[in-house]
């Protein structure tokens, strides 16, 4: 099985930090204020003291280290391959997820390059399948993402993989005729 581009670690790291940064800041302020004595937070004059913000110098680096470790683990356990039966990927650090998409179910293969991915020279490959990619129901769109998303591929690998998947999907659909 093949792994993603090694730069995927940085993509995973930055996305984790951006997704959790605001809640972590508020949580760290709450924890620091709770750990410090209430009398230290408010001076006798009723003015606000910023002494509890010293805890941020401990919490933020610890958070960044944990995010980087998690990004490395996520990269290590994210693998994919093209088999005779279909496209196969496995991912997950704590809970493993195994996805196999038969070639005859592939409807479309798109390449997406977000701003962070472009800065790192990476691309996302989205494999859309029949009935799974975008189900529009009574209450709007559900399952809006593609079933076979591969993040953090190099541009060349993403284009090669897209072409190979489209070719195999055509071949599998033509064999039934």
UniProtKB/TrEMBL annotation:
Signal sequence coordinates: none
One Pfam family cited in the UniProt record for this chain: bPH_2
Transmembrane residue ranges: 9-32, 52-71
Domain of life: Bacteria
Keyword annotations of the record: Membrane, Transmembrane, Transmembrane helix
Boundaries of every YdbS-like PH domain copy: 75-165
Matches recorded under InterPro entries: YdbS-like_PH
Annotated protein name in UniProt: YdbS-like PH domain-containing protein
Organism: Candidatus Yanofskybacteria bacterium RIFCSPLOWO2_02_FULL_44_18
Organism lineage string: Bacteria, Candidatus Yanofskyibacteriota
């Amino acid at each position: 099985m093949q792994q993603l581009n090694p730069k995927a670690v940085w993509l995973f790291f930055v996305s984790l930090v951006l997704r959790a940064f605001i809640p972590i800041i508020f949580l760290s302020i709450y924890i620091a204020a709770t750990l410090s004595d209430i009398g230290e937070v408010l001076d006798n004059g009723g003015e606000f003291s910023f002494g509890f913000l010293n805890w941020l110098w401990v919490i933020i680096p610890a958070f960044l280290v944990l995010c980087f470790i998690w990004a490395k683990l996520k990269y290590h356990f994210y693998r994919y391959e093209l088999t005779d039966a279909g496209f196969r990927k496995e991912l997950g650090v704590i809970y493993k997820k195994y996805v196999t998409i038969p070639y005859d179910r592939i409807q479309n293969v798109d390449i997406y390059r977000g701003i962070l991915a472009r800065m790192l020279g990476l691309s996302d490959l989205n494999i859309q399948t029949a009935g799974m990619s975008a189900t529009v129901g009574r209450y709007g769109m559900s399952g809006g993402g593609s079933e076979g998303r591969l993040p953090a591929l190099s541009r060349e690998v993403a284009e090669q993989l897209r072409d190979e998947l489209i070719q195999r999907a055509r071949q599998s659909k033509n064999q039934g005729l």
